[in-house]
Design a protein that fits this description.
homodimer, mainly alpha, Tetracycline Repressor, domain 2, 74% helix, globular, DNA-binding
DNA sequence: TTGTTGAGATGACAACGTCAACTGAAACTG
DNA sequence: CAGTTTCAGTTGACGTTGTCATCTCAACAA
C-alpha cells in the first residue's frame, strides 16, 4: 500500500536527485525544470507542487550538499584524533576534494544569497560550528574564532580559485594540497 | 567626420558599459541582450556584430575588470613603498573592496571557465604577475611563489565568502580586514 | 457514498538567446 | 566619378525556458 504522502515524498526526493545529477553532468544551464521533471518521472511543472520555484529547488540541492559536508566533519570530530592538526588538514582538504569532484555543486553551495537565504545559511552554520571545534583542538579555544574564519576562507579560496582556472600552477607552483599544508604550518600550535 | 570604425568602436564600448551597469544593478539575470542593446542605443541583436554570443560579451566585461585591478596593482608597485607589507595589505584589501562594492562583477571575474578561457585568464595573469612582485617585497623572492598563491587564495576566499553571506561574523568575530591583517601577521618577514 | 484535497498533467504565454534575411551607408576599386 | 564591396545595424522568426491557470483524478474524510 502506497499512501499519498509517501509518493509525494518520493517525488520530491527524485526531483532533488535529478537536479543534482543534471548539475553535475552539464552545469547550471543543464538544469531545466522540464528535464528535471522528466528524469524524476513526472512532467514539467510538477516541481511546483514541491518547491516555490526553480531557485527553491536548487536551494534544496545546496542544503543537502551542506548536510553531507556536515556529516563528514561530524565523523572527524567524533574520532579520537590523536593529532588535531591532521583532522584539520582532512577537513580543509575535504573542501578541495568536493570542489574538484563536483565543481558545479560546489559553486551552487556558495552562490549569491537568495531572497530568503535562511535555509541554506542554516545548513552551513552547523558545518561551520563543527569546523570551529576542529580548529579549537589545534590552536586552542581562545584563538579558534579568528583563525577559524581565516582557515575556512583560505580553504574556500584555494578551492574556488582552482575550479575557476585562476590558480595558475605554473605561476604559483603550488597545488591545493600544498597551499593547505603551508597554511597549517603557519598556525600557532596550542 | 565620423568614420565607420569609430562608430563601431563606440558601440562596442557602449555595449560593454551597458552590460556592466546592468550586472551591477540587477545581477546576472538582469543582463539580457535586449536590454543591453537598448541601453547602448542599438537593437537586440546588434551585439552579435561585436561579440560571438552573450558569453563573449560578459567575458569582455570580466576582462576589463581584471585590467582595472591590474592598473591598481601597477600603481602600488610603482610607488617607492617604504613598508612592503603595507602595499601587500592594500593589494589584498583591494580585492575585498571590489567584492563589496560590485559583488556581481566580482563573481563574474571568477566565473566558471568558458569554452575558450584564454581571454579572461590572460588578463588575470598580468594581475597575478604584479601581485607576485608585491609579495616578493615582503617575504623575499624565493618564498614569494608559494606564499603568493596562498595570499591570493585567502584574500579571494575572504571576499567571496563575505559576499556569499557565508562569513558569519557572529561566529568568527572577524571582518574581512581583520582576517587579512591576521594572515599578513603570520607571514615570515624577509 | 459523497465531498474534499492535493499531486500531477496540459495548454498557453511572455521573455530570452540566436540565426537568417534584409537595408543602407561608408569604404574601396577601376 | 560610377560601380562594387563591406559591414554595422534592423527586423522577423524559431526553439527553449520559467511560470501560471486550468483541468483531471485518485487518495482521504465525513
Amino acid at each position: 500500500m502506497v499512501t499519498r504522502v509517501e509518493t509525494a515524498a518520493a517525488t520530491r526526493r527524485a526531483l532533488v536527485d535529478a537536479a543534482g545529477a543534471l548539475l553535475d553532468a552539464g552545469g547550471p544551464d543543464a538544469v531545466t525544470l522540464r528535464e528535471v521533471g522528466a528524469r524524476a518521472g513526472v512532467s514539467r511543472s510538477a516541481p511546483y507542487r514541491h518547491f516555490a520555484d526553480k531557485e527553491s529547488l536548487l536551494a534544496a540541492v545546496a542544503t543537502e550538499a551542506w548536510s553531507e559536508v556536515g556529516d563528514a566533519l561530524e565523523a572527524l570530530v567524533a574520532e579520537p584524533a590523536a593529532r588535531p592538526e591532521q583532522a584539520l588538514r582532512q577537513a580543509l582538504l575535504a573542501m578541495v576534494e568536493i570542489g574538484r569532484t563536483r565543481p558545479h555543486l560546489y559553486r551552487l553551495m556558495f552562490a549569491a544569497p537568495a531572497a530568503d537565504p535562511t535555509v541554506v545559511v542554516r545548513a552551513a552554520e552547523r558545518t561551520q560550528d563543527l569546523f570551529l571545534e576542529i580548529v579549537a583542538a589545534v590552536v586552542g579555544q581562545g584563538a579558534a574564532r579568528q583563525y577559524g574564519g581565516l582557515l575556512l576562507s583560505s580553504a574556500h579560496g584555494v578551492t574556488h580559485l582552482e575550479i575557476s582556472g585562476h590558480l595558475l600552477e605554473h605561476k604559483w607552483q603550488a597545488t591545493g594540497e600544498q597551499l593547505v599544508d603551508l597554511l597549517i604550518g603557519l598556525l600557532p600550535m596550542d
